[in-house]
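Here is an idea for our session: we take a single protein and study its fold together. To get us started, please write out a protein record for me. Start from the sequence, derive the backbone structure tokens from it, and show both lines together. Go ahead whenever you are ready, and we will take it from there:
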Amino acid sequence: MPVVVDAAVRGRVERGREFLRTVLADEDRPVYGATTGFGALVGFAGRADEADQCDNTLAHLGAGQGPDLALEVSRAALLLRTWSLAQGVSGVSAHVVDGLAAMLATTFVPVIPRYGSVGASGDLIPLAYAVQALRGRGHAYVDGSRMPAAQALELAGLTPLTLDGRDALAFVNGTSLTTAATSLALDGVRASHRALQRLTCLLADLLGCDPGFLDPHLLNAYGHAGAVDVADGMRKTLAGIVPSGTRALQEPYSIRCSPQLLGAVEDALRYVDGVVEADLRSVSDNPLFFPDSGAVVHGGNFFGQPAAFAADVLAMVTGQLGNLAERQLDLLVDPARNGGLPPMLAAGPGQQHGMQGVQLATTAFVAEIRRAAVPASMQSLPTNLHNQDVVPFGTQAALRAYDMAALLRLLCGSLAVGLRQAVHVGARQPTSPGCAALLDALVESIPPIDPDRPLDADVRTAADLVAAML
């Protein structure tokens, strides 16, 4: 879908730019980054030439390191930066917004290094790499191929951006990367959350569990809105289930407490929804220019604390969802708890090993998620000569949550492969139509493990399948 700069957007951007010009004409009215130095050097005069001021803004921020960010993260960050600048209170040139809209209509994606942002004065270093690529400096991708940025612009049919000091600072002085990564992480965790609700139902049906753990009387008495809503959805998936009558009175917590766990996740994700929604609407920049009131306001709308907290919540949620998926798979491969199915769901135990390799991998995934789940939002370190004396580390929190969401997706895929294999080695066919439909989709896409084979691609296929099911 193209990004269109309509007449209303162009009008407000141009009006903001005209107001900036009026302010800059008043020598008694300093404007951070346009007439001054940056950060801790704000007390010194900036460069008189506007092109030099742009170069000076961006050159010193070329200090990022590490691997390239995922292309979808970089592209999403630029979409959000376009939205923020298009609100008309950043004082940018209209051609900056036009250039971003034109870029988004192509496959051009700037190369942005992973490390360097603290998310306090916005994502300064990462966004500097992005705008430098749009100027033809550094590197970029076109159609997924990495190359020098100038070559990439030419291949994409784009004109290098020309900027002054205010344009450059407005581009980098926001948390668009942090918000983009948090948004994408939220989308991934939500997909896995939906998948685990369905996979838990299929597990319960294959084992012949009694669905009483989803009873509305029980969940209404629990009183948590997320749990009530999740249990309602799971009851619909399990409608028509016929318990085997051979299970113990109470199932392990990974089944019996699943609506309480998944419901708590739903409540937490609703909080993250609200933060992301506000961030997506926000203007993240400093200073801001308000033509109607004649105000130029220097402040901290580039401070990524909301997204930092939200991303840390996503990390905690991902850790518990990943643990649930791993524990359910462990239950499924254990003959002492899976109703007598063969160990590791192997078609010929000893001669074959079934899910053994996948189960080992899920343990590693959970360990990696736990290692990464330490909150970033309270790790503040002062920097920039104590100009930035408190920092939220929202960028670290967001990118970490994005990575963890990918591991959670693989855990869901691993469980799905195990459920498909369970039927092949003797589990009963589902008795609820909703679970039968899910199993049919898995059977159609995933062959039985008989004989053993590498399962890495099958796990990814299953992960994609269950994540896409609404």
